[in-house]
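Here is the promised in-class demo. Please do not try to memorize the tokens; focus on the logic of going from shape to residues.
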């Protein structure tokens, strides 16, 4: 654990540092409050042991600054005060310190208090992990339920539109010979009435019919009806495919290990998120033949989805996502590369942290890559990210072909 010591007295500082280092902690030490605050901001400090009276910034202000800082983890704060200044310790506790130690320092007491602080930090960590897991599973379950609900809703109307189109096509084919008969009858009559020079009302009617045929361009209509019906049927087939993909993708509640074709998972996930991608992204695929992978298929689809959505969100104007799959020994490797904005080097180590996001409120929760990380971990796989600002980002995933229970 990284511990910060803020102590202006050289001897006490060295004494503290020695004990803590002996306990295996990484120590950063400062000789005044300002230096301590600077070091605190630069390091990933989990515990602070601070003197009360210090030049520049005193312990009380340091403590206040730390508590007011927006941190994604808890920092355990211990005050060190002189024996006759007990009231200072109470003040310290009031501004957010967790504990205090009275000088002169007793090494055994110090160790015991640090251990107690560690227990609190561990509890906090465990609590955070559980709540993140809960949130993730809730998010995944609700996406699954939503997708399944939408798929069901679309399925019903698509079913009857598709079946009506089929009937319509049959009706039209049935009516065609009849229409042809009408038309040749009209043509024949037209010739007869012309040669007979007769002036029956039927002649009027025939000329109105032939005029109407011309006006509406009956030949074109008869031809185009076929095309329109065929196009509509193609449309409903496509809707059916999307619904199937959506169902494949969601599978709410069906959380079990299966043999899955990851290329197919990538394809169906691409179809599901296509609407998000299509405006600014071209997708190229280089999918090798893969063995079936023992896995939780819908969870891996979730991985692909989160990576595709991130990639397209990183593309400002126009760009591409390249997807490549390979089988290497007993692992399947999936590379997803984009030509988006890239990730700054100092953020690369944070992107898998829960709630780390650079997106505006409402656009990103910062859970996407954390979900990805946990799913890959569950499959005993590996995930790695390479990125260059202005050039793009590549996520490389390796998943063992055989699933191993924990
Ligand atoms: N392909 C990428 N290109 C550039 N930056 C990325 C890429 N993928 C992730 N990031 C960075 O990592 C951060 C975390 O990503 P993550 O998917 O965990 O959360 P998010 O996309 O911000 O929110 P959400 O929970 O909606 O997914 C993003 O905010 C972004 O800054
Ligand atoms: Mg995301």
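The designed amino acids, position by position:
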């Amino acid at each position: 654990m990284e511990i910060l010591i803020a102590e202006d007295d050289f001897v006490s500082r060295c004494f503290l540092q020695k004990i803590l280092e002996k306990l295996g902690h990484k120590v950063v030490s400062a000789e005044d409050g300002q230096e301590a605050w600077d070091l605190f901001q630069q390091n990933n400090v989990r515990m602070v042991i601070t003197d009360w009276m210090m030049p520049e910034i005193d312990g009380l202000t340091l403590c206040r600054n730390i508590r007011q800082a927006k941190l994604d983890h808890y920092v355990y704060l211990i005050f060190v005060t002189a024996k006759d200044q007990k009231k200072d310790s109470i003040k310290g506790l009031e501004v957010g310190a967790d504990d205090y130690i009275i000088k002169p320092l007793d090494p055994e007491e110090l160790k015991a208090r640090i251990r107690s602080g560690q227990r609190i930090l561990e509890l906090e960590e465990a609590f955070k992990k559980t709540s993140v897991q809960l949130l993730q599973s809730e998010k995944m379950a609700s996406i699954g339920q939503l997708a399944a609900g939408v798929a069901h809703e679309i399925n019903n109307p698509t079913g009857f539109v598709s079946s009506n189109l089929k009937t319509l096509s049959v009706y039209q084919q049935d009516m065609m010979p009849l229409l042809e008969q009408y038309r040749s009858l009209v043509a024949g009559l037209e010739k007869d009435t012309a040669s007979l020079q007769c002036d029956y009302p039927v002649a009027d009617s025939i000329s109105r019919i032939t005029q109407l045929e011309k006006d509406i361009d009956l030949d074109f209509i008869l031809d185009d009806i076929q095309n329109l019906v065929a196009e509509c049927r193609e449309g409903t087939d496509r809707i059916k495919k999307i619904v199937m993909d959506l169902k494949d993708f969601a599978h709410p509640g069906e959380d079990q290990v299966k043999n899955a074709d990851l290329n197919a998972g990538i394809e169906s996930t691409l179809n599901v998120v296509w609407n998000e991608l299509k405006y600014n992204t071209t997708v190229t695929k280089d999918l090798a033949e893969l063995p079936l992978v023992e896995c939780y298929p819908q969870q891996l689809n979730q991985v692909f989805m989160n990576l595709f959505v991130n990639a397209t969100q990183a593309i400002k104007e126009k760009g591409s996502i390249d997807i490549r799959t390979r089988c290497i020994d007993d692992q399947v490797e999936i590379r997803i590369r984009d030509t988006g904005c890239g990730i700054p080097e100092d953020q690369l180590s944070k992107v898998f942290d829960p709630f780390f996001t650079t997106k505006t409120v409402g656009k990103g929760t910062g859970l996407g890559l954390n979900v990805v990380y946990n799913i890959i971990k569950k499959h005993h796989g590996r995930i790695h990210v390479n990125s260059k600002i202005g050039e793009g980002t590549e996520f490389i995933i390796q998943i063992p072909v055989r699933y191993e229970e924990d």
